[in-house]
Amino acid sequence: MLKQDLIFRNPMRLMGHETEDILPAGGFGAVLARAGLGKTAILVQLALDSLLQSKNVLHISLEDPVKKVCLWYEEVFRNIATQYHVQQIDQIWEAILPYRLVMTFNVDSFSVPKLEERLAELTEQNIFMPQIILIDGLPFDETVRASLTDLKSLAERYSLRIWFTVRTHRHEAPGPDGMPAPLLNIADLFEVAIQLSPEGKDIYLKALKGRHSSSDDPALFLDPSTMLIKDKSKD
Amino acid sequence: MKNDIGKVRNIGISAHIDSGKTTLTERILYYTKRIHAIHDVKGKDGVGATMDSMELEKERGITIASAATFCEWQGHEINIIDTPGHVDFTIEVERSLRVLDGAVLVLCSVGGVQSQSITVDQQMKRYKVPCMAFVNKCDRSGANPFRVISQLREKLGHNAVAMQIPIGLEADLKGVVDLITMKAVYFDGDNGENIRFEDIPENLLSEATEKREELIDAASMFSDELMEAALEDAVTEDLLLSAIRKGTLTREMTPVFMGSAYKNKGIQPLLDAVTTLLPCPADVENRALDLDNDESEVILSGDTGNPMVALAFKLEDGQYGQLTYIRAYQGNLAKGDTVINVRTGKKVKIGRVVRMHANQMEDIDNIAAGYIGALFGIDCASGDTFVSPGINLTMTSMYVPEPVISLAITPKDHKAEINMSKALNRFSKEDPTFKTFVSEETGDTIISGMGELHLEVYIERMRREYDAEVTTGAPRVAYRETITRTAEFNYTHKKQTGGSGQYGRVAGYIEPISEEEFVFESKITGGAIPTQFIPACEKGFRNCLAKGPKMEFPVTGIKIVINDGASHAVDSSEMAFQAAARGAFLEGYGKARPVIHEPIMKVVVETPTEFQGGAMGSLNQRRGMIVGSQDEGPMSVIEAQVPLAEMFGYSTVLRSLTQGKAQFTMEFATYKQVPKAIAEELIKKAAEEKKNVA
């Protein structure tokens, strides 16, 4: 099994993005869900999709320590490999690891200037040049617009694609267009938004914004045992 | 010697280097009246702390060997194992944890949970050692015990709960408030030996009440009785302590004490807690393996009436010969007994039995189950199990990592040569991670171990303790060879040069495996190779493993399957098939894309945030793969995987990069393929060396 084969089999492909990136350069994507539904699992699948294509991914977690983030990757990767009967997973794993860098901050101490400073250190010394950044655990409160605007200009300058996890709450009513509360006033900054919504026992993926937000949405859901994206129609 | 197992505590004091555990032990020995004067670790008086019995330890201010020592407190007998704090000596730490029932994790109130604390904590987890924490150095500027408690929770995942709050901090540290008795405790006298209880100072009352509530909340998880009492506001000291003890024994709670060993504050309450909160040997379940029953696990009873089972966990060369530190797990090990060393099967007669107090000793008659003592004149290796005749149990073998670095040593003169061999013999018995052998090619004596410092310390010890001056070569990394794809072989060994000929044909394939070092499988059918020659084939293949054809490094991770062959009625012999296997190996190996693997170390650097970029750069330059960085306020922790070959002298580099403010730990992680460019360099270097030898 070659890395190439795994790329074509990995669950992100189910989202209808066969070859190109989901986000344009400088673009923002959001994975929205209530606590505990699998935002991080989706984020890690997005990351693995890029890692398999030899793209540098910087994973920033404001909640978990480095060790736990790494465990997420191992777990999801192992599940993908088992799901698609991939052999020689150790070799593929070794091959993709150098494309990943994990950074963790305390929520309170994280700021865009700080991130920029870190990025400068990494790129100036040629240690790591991220192409995709994942930010897990950024609180989407009233002040977030300012940070996001700064991040947007950073993304454009470095041609980065940035994915965020956004926690929604049951008690917050969505906007008239169905946009969940945390994104209401900032939706314009995002190119893609995917929501995880539980229906009965299953957790479905709904595209709120982006190319596939129309009615031809495939019935994608998260397999609760592996947390991988699956296509119900092909089940 | 008493025999009340409920009043015995075998504890370890584990910590990061320089967090003051030797000073703490020294104070414990002073208050328990085992010593009558206090000496500092890096003592100006030239005596040094009592636990650091080796001269070298005294000089460097670090603890290398874990001396076991005994003391008494409030009617309890406490055995303390002082453990080394540097990661290079972790076999010592692991060995002590194996014989301990509980541990005190010492943390610096300024440095907090550092990388070594994380390693030590993982080891404690592995051996399920219940522990409590002591936040030391509360007198230092920048001390913040509550930050350390939150680090214990965040970094180590402990349910850490304060048992005390400090009265004053830094230079103003006066004492502690005990949250169980709700009293202020002060330590008077020149050496803090007089304890004075007072009411809690007015300004600390609300904080103390709040922290006590937190403590009760946490403890009530382990006792319904306490929870009810808390609701009715009727919590008693006993109820609270027994709930905390319950949580501590199951490792679900870590009580945290605080003070300053150097300033003689907070030690006696810690000793009280050792007796009230940590387990006695009977609280801990110990298992052995039954060698007569396919190594099935047996739970040891801890009863002194049952057959004896004891583990030798440390050896020391003393004035009067070898001293063997031993822990009895079951039965009674008495003077004059005849016991069996399970590893060698030899009978051993127990001569002198002693109890150690650092480097002084006291004669005793026996070591009962649960106790730690030492034997004289017993020839054994560290990790050996001793049992009463009639049973065949062995204590679970300890996890021993393979050495990753080696060094050639040459004695300066004949006297040094004799002493060196004595020293090496001793060290390799004492420390299973330290190995020594003579290189067949160069005739050099090679020592190998777990890191640069590990070997350096042994070289120093050779010089000081054995008067053996040696010169050392450059450190060498333990490379390995392996293959990356399946390849077939079909080799015929034929020789007819007069006399009886040699004939054997071996065919099959060779493939990479990751789970095991070497697997041999015969799929020969129809007697293509007669059954009696199959073992010779295996032997032939096996003999090729020690020196790989590519670079002469050991070959690992290969599977050999033979499925065809041929023999000759007269000319085939074991020797012929061994030679055929060797030829087959060379043929298959060459086609199977052999590569060189090198040891990769997990390196964790703790640095002030402003030097993060520099530290990362330094790891990157060393072919390191940065796994991640963790921002922790003013400090930042970088985790990376770096080839060992690139890490020589890194401590100096890191020091100069960060004004000496960063530190790092390193442990073996895995073996990985050497990049092509580096492999070529290695091949070139090896060829040059060969030329020089020739």
Automatic annotation (TrEMBL), chain A:
Name the record gives this protein: AAA ATPase-like domain-containing protein
The organism of origin for this protein: Desulfonema magnum
Top-level taxon of origin: Bacteria
Pfam families, sorted: AAA_25
UniProtKB/TrEMBL annotation, chain B:
Molecular function, one GO term: translation elongation factor activity
Annotated positions binding GTP: 15-22, 82-86, 136-139
PROSITE patterns to which the protein is assigned, alphabetical: G_TR_1 (PS00301), G_TR_2 (PS51722)
Cell compartments where the protein resides: Cytoplasm
Keywords tagged on the record: Cytoplasm, Elongation factor, GTP-binding, Nucleotide-binding, Protein biosynthesis
Location of the Tr-type G domain: 6-283
Gene Ontology cellular component terms for the protein in this record: cytoplasm
UniProt-listed Gene3D superfamilies: 3.30.230.10, 3.30.70.240, Elongation Factor G (Translational Gtpase), domain 3, P-loop containing nucleotide triphosphate hydrolases, Translation factors
PANTHER family: ELONGATION FACTOR G, MITOCHONDRIAL (PTHR43636)
Designated name of the protein: Elongation factor G
Species: Desulfonema magnum
Gene name, Swiss-Prot/TrEMBL: fusA1
